[in-house]
Amino acid sequence: MRNSMRWIETLEDIREERPCALALGSFDGLHRGHMAVIRAARQWPWEAGAFTFPSSPAGGSGVVTPRDKRRLLEAAGLKRVYSIPFAQVRDIEAEDFVRRILVGKCQAKALCCGEDFRFGRGAAGDVALLTRLCGELGLELRVVPPVLEGGEKVSSTRIRAAVEAGDIPLANRLLGRPFGFSLEVIHGNHIGTGLGTPTINQALPEGFVLPRFGVYASWVRIDGRYYYGVTNIGVKPTVGSDRVLAETWMPEFSGDLYGKRVRVFLVAFIRPERKFGSLEELKEEIGRNARQAKALAGEGPERGKK
After folding, report:
1. Is 247 in the active site?
2. Catalytic residue among 115, 184, 247, 284
3. Over the stretch 2-42, which tens digit does the pLDDT of each residue have?
4. How many Cβ atoms from other residues are within 10 Å of residue 6's Cβ?
5. Torsion-angle region of residue 267: left (phi > 0), alpha (psi -120 to 50) or beta?
6. pTM, two decimal places
7. Could you give the dihedral angle defined by the CA atoms of residues 292, 294, 298 and 302, in that order, rounded to the nearest 10 degrees?
8. CA distance 268 to 122
């Protein structure tokens, strides 16, 4: 049975009568640290939800697309999500934000956040203030300690750096799931078809983290099945592209995917993007990369972390 999660995008649309337990944060990566806060919000008897923003107020590219963020929050079991533009709450004083918005409008009975959570005008509110306010208002509060990987805190900043460096295994460990994207398949220049290596082209959206340009081993999910792939991310210097594309060849798949949304998981970096002297030379290299990709891809992405 599908979880019926409600998605609210403006303060004016918040009209709640039922109490809730809210996870607080930008959740711009939905990594292991974020998911620990979200799981904590589900421990109380009230309806679990989140108060978040479409993008991080601190800036930085996203490591999850908006569509995937919504999907993952729903899969986490949340019943309501307030994804409010930061501009709508930026000038609200910290105490007023808790009293008027979280309690008055959202009907929060319990709050969850990380140790470094900040809120209110000028980010003046911190966990100490939140603790005091919860005591005054009779709210439950759970402050979740940071999740560590390699002795360091899991963060979206670390994930961005790993993806931009092509260190996908590290990004996957920090995320707690395979790094990837679900995007529409668009028409390319059909060079791959002419080479006997037909590819799917997907334009990486603005604001999404750009992986290191080059060739990756990947897995592609199509109609519930997984196919190993070799994915080039960049501007295709041999044939040229005017935007950043993810171009994936699946040697064991044949079919028309234009206009469909296809999920691609990156597994490991194979080589940097480079320009070849001829299309024949490019074709030979693609064949070598496909063999490398099959060896690196293994048995498939971890089930249950899609």
Report:
1. yes
2. 247
3. 558 999 999 999 999 999 999 999 999 999 999 999 999 99
4. 13
5. alpha
6. 0.89
7. 110
8. 40
